Input
Amino acid sequence: MSHLIAELVFRATLETLEMVFASGAIAVLGGLPLAVLMLVTSRRDLFDMVWLSRLLGTVIDALRAVPFIILLVLLIPVTRLIAGTALGTAAAIVPLSIAAIPYYARIAEVSLKEVDAGLVDAVRAMGGTRWMVIRYALIPEALPGLIAGLTVTLVTLVGASAMAGAIGAGGLGDLAIRYGYQRFNTTVMLSVVAVLVVVVMSIQAAGNMVARRLR
Amino acid sequence: MSHLIAELVFRATLETLEMVFASGAIAVLGGLPLAVLMLVTSRRDLFDMVWLSRLLGTVIDALRAVPFIILLVLLIPVTRLIAGTALGTAAAIVPLSIAAIPYYARIAEVSLKEVDAGLVDAVRAMGGTRWMVIRYALIPEALPGLIAGLTVTLVTLVGASAMAGAIGAGGLGDLAIRYGYQRFNTTVMLSVVAVLVVVVMSIQAAGNMVARRLR
Amino acid sequence: QSNTTLRIGIMSGEDEDIWRIVSTNASKSGLTLKIVTFSDYSTPNQALSEGDLDANAFQHGPFLKAQSEANGFKITPVGNTYFAPMGLYSHRWKSLQDLPPNASIGVPNDPSNEGRALLLLQTLGILKISSSAGLLPTALDITDNPRNISIRELDAGVVGRALTDLDAAVVNTEWAQKAGIDTIKERIGEETLQNNPYVCFIATNAKDASAAWVKPLVSAYQQPNTRQALLDVYHGAIVPAWT
Amino acid sequence: MTPLLEIRNVSHQFGDHSALTNVSFSVEQGDILGIIGRSGAGKSTLLRCLCALQKPTEGEILLNGADLVSLPERALVLERRRIGLVFQHFNLLNSRTVAANIALPLEISGIPSSRRRARVKELIEIVGLEGHENKRPSQLSGGQKQRVGIARALATEPVLLLCDEATSALDPETTASVLDLLAEINRRLGLTIILITHEMDVVRRFARRVVVLEHGKVVENSPVVTLLSDPSRNENIAHLFPDTLIQIPSDQKAYLQTDPFPASEVLLRLGDTAASLPSALLSELGRNFGADIRLLNGGITQVGGRNIMDMIIRLPVFSPEIQMFLKNRCQTVEVLGYVPSDR
Amino acid sequence: MTPLLEIRNVSHQFGDHSALTNVSFSVEQGDILGIIGRSGAGKSTLLRCLCALQKPTEGEILLNGADLVSLPERALVLERRRIGLVFQHFNLLNSRTVAANIALPLEISGIPSSRRRARVKELIEIVGLEGHENKRPSQLSGGQKQRVGIARALATEPVLLLCDEATSALDPETTASVLDLLAEINRRLGLTIILITHEMDVVRRFARRVVVLEHGKVVENSPVVTLLSDPSRNENIAHLFPDTLIQIPSDQKAYLQTDPFPASEVLLRLGDTAASLPSALLSELGRNFGADIRLLNGGITQVGGRNIMDMIIRLPVFSPEIQMFLKNRCQTVEVLGYVPSDR
Ligand SMILES: Nc1ncnc2c1ncn2[C@@H]1O[C@H](COP(=O)(O)OP(=O)(O)OP(=O)(O)O)[C@@H](O)[C@H]1O
Ligand SMILES: Nc1ncnc2c1ncn2[C@@H]1O[C@H](COP(=O)(O)OP(=O)(O)OP(=O)(O)O)[C@@H](O)[C@H]1O
Ligand SMILES: [Mg+2]
Ligand SMILES: [Mg+2]
Output
């Protein structure tokens, strides 16, 4: 692998990491509250506003239904508004986040649902408000699952970030497509895929470790 | 919406459903055993072959690391071998499944991990073999989570199937991209996205219902 | 001449190598080129018209026309780059006449390539396309299909590789070479080079068409070293389109 | 004085299964109430209703006059902070250590962290979990979990403590020390305690009043002494006290006949709940009537500070004088039957 | 005869915490063994080791001579099918109904479904869960869950039954009926039972031998009669029997002095475990010495079919003759102290 390619791969790795972790962080910040809201409004013993839960579910499903490449383009004006430009790595974080938020919301919801009702009861019985139920029971008890879900989300983002090449975001996936798929440069493709495998495995290993420590 | 477009959308819907459900089914058939294997080999009280669990994890992560469009192309020979042709809706099921299997394996693993160790103990104490532990404790007890995970996988497949347009698989996502997005036909794009939203919401609603009944 | 920085949008792939040379050429005339690569055909024009780019170089006239009509872009070509001929290839059949009824023919599925491929098939007398479809027809615009050919719309990168699964396929020469097709022996039809509208060019927003940096930019491209690079990089699959 | 807690016509349905039907009773401030009843009688459901964890299908639950069922969320939360609840299945948070579990109600009530630490330390000592502070609940034994649950319920010094079988997983010594602790808080601070238990010994030694549930209905509500002195009085509850109903030893039972026969002796059951100084009954019988009176089973036990006599004796003769003497000295004298004198 | 189960030098560590240290004992076929000990003593850990759910860090567990710890998986599975285990925390599968939970061990042992159905029906009746067959475990009360656990453990008619506090959530009546059932199976089929319990009454009435664990070590291993007749013999275990150690009533205790004084009466504690026909001691005392002997606490109880005497009496005089008489008639005579005769 020539020096030039090594440099390309190195830059692309940074770009991928930037996109994945930035949008992953935003996915948690946006998706977790949505998931919690969806859950607590659906439960009789908490907020009991099934209509709101349904509404949120609908919005989330609608966002998830739009193919990412279309979302990418439809969101260009929004991206420009938020990021100042519609092109490049930083700009790609906007559509990636907007795709990842509903995705993580659904994944987080699965884990939150599994929390033993007895623990919600316990916090309620102590005189905990509904907010405290979320803070002391739902989130901490679901944490191993939430982390595992985040791991899945991050890896999915690695895949999605490849498509962000469409708006000039660069990154490993884009490099693999450009050199590997479009130019049949097997060396580059394999080395890029190798780096991708390392990135994915590191994310997975880190996620597993954190989840295990919490369990 | 003209008659022609309605017909296009209708055919694309069928194609999408065919791809999503066929590869979803294969994802479960392939991914669930992998997830189970990964879990039971990692556990001291079951198969205790951590190396195998690690190996499986590595293979799964490696597969997940390859961007789908590249997988699509790399797998053309495999697809041809399995499906007889590398093109079309039926052929697309091969790469979609191969992408979905490791994806579902990781998602299913999260739910399987949450099963109370006491229930594994219960089946063991009755003289259940390790296979019976899987059959009577791990899978049934994780079922609500496994179903919720399948829902997430199916919706992700709806997104991925859009890319399968590259090998002439058709489907709603491809229609939205090619006719709506690339050829600026907003009517087609919006109607296709509307159908996609309906498909995704139906999958989600069905998944929620099944999971709720099992919980 | 003052140092100007330009953002140029191109498609990812070999073009990046060409533009690396162009950048070097341009720096001699005081231009700093920032190359932005795209893997999707729809975005570069939008990015250009919205000011995220100063120029782009990836398209031919028919494509630009269609995009401008749909989106109201005010983009004009300012200098030719190259011409990439298309051919009809087959592993199974020796000539056009051998093509059986109900044969399947693969075409690229992106708007400009698909239209061009269909028009090639029309030129070869295999089918007829509605005249109202203009330069960007799709399989839906076929009006007459005497041999009942089935058209398979595939990703440009896939058509060549999927030739085994097809009776024939229309493939850009560059892709055909990469897919391991013998572009001489397996070709059963090709584009006529005369008056071909599919010459690629550098484009800018109409308001910038006479900007001071346009001429130096175009001439940085139309250099002998670029010509050589085009021939090398594309292994003869494309033809430089300036004299 | 209005009662601390008043339950009025509470009913609860699970689907078409009535878990509680028209339950009414009240609890005075400072009282210790035992709730007993068969498995599945509705005890846990009732306890959950008492802190509005489960809204009953019907009825009112008045705590200091305020109806918990209809109280708005904000006020309900504050009321609950004055109630401690020990769950039957512990319900400990596995995301927290033992110490952090015990600290949780303090955090919820907004106690500053320095005072929290001191209080947690004190509670850990009280329930004997020193050295386990940093374990997770999943690393504890059953009884240790239960003690964490008890410590957690006591943390905020509630005015009302609800215990759902809070000592079922504890050994007798730990049970006794927990009950002593509760009794002391009850005496010192007037803590009101409602406890569900299956251990009649706990009821006997600890409770003042008892409510008995049967198929979701209250079938008995009386002071513990009344109940224990003669559980057979109420046929609905006799089954709950198999150990209080002293049995005829099986070797005697085999020969038991209902009518006297030659060379037979009589089996009597004597009961009394009132004697302030325990009776010298047996020795008096021997002295006054010259008979060998055999104590077959039972004797004297202490219930709520009173001496309860319940015993089965065997007499060679049952003359009218003896009968008169016993009737004078015991509340109940029951002839159980006759056995051969050589057995 | 080789014992059914032999535990040899079993130790288990959780990290650096020793839950079991060098535990050895054996259990004969058909025996009923009680394991008791303080909360956290290691009882549940030991039971889990007994069916190799937890591999002990050290030691051997021989079931019919085969060491479960080193047995290969295939053989271990078959051995376990002959063992029933009732878990302290029930461990029911919530994915199955009550009936299906009970059927599970039958499925596992490959019993055909028709026989399965009949057996499940029978078991449901035995544990009194008729009408709850189709509920999920989450819809059951604590005691109902426990009964499902018991039915499940009995389903395949095991030869060895391990119970971890299997009656802790049951009311006395249900407890008694479950124990009666177990005793009957034990008699009829020679079922060997090992049960952990905190209810001394269960030990008293049900067990034949008792193993006492303390901090993971065996501190007592003896027949239940020996143990109960004088728990104070072993200071390690006295705390487990607070209710067996009969107390001096508190109203008397207040006046208790260690030495005699004018107008004082003596408090004696009398104990005996051997009397085959209960003693007529008190009436004889009255008859022979003309004294009013007061029974203050205790009396006769039946343990494992034998009559155990344990009582505190009060005598106006404690002449050498009386002393001689009592020494002749009781195993233990202990002077507890003196109280004023007018109290
Ligand atoms: N997984 C674990 N990790 C660490 N320590 C443990 C674990 N399980 C049990 N222990 C500790 O081992 C000791 C013995 O536990 P065990 O459950 O055997 O007690 P036990 O005698 O059954 O008590 P109880 O009567 O309260 O149920 C306890 O001190 C407990 O804290
Ligand atoms: N979620 C539920 N759904 C349906 N039925 C339920 C539910 N919870 C409890 N029950 C039923 O209600 C009845 C009362 O249950 P509860 O838990 O109050 O009994 P309990 O008196 O506490 O019994 P135990 O002493 O066994 O704990 C039982 O028959 C039980 O099966
Ligand atoms: Mg209960
Ligand atoms: Mg235990």
In short: The domain at 2-214 of chain B is CATH 1.10.3720.10 (MetI-like fold).
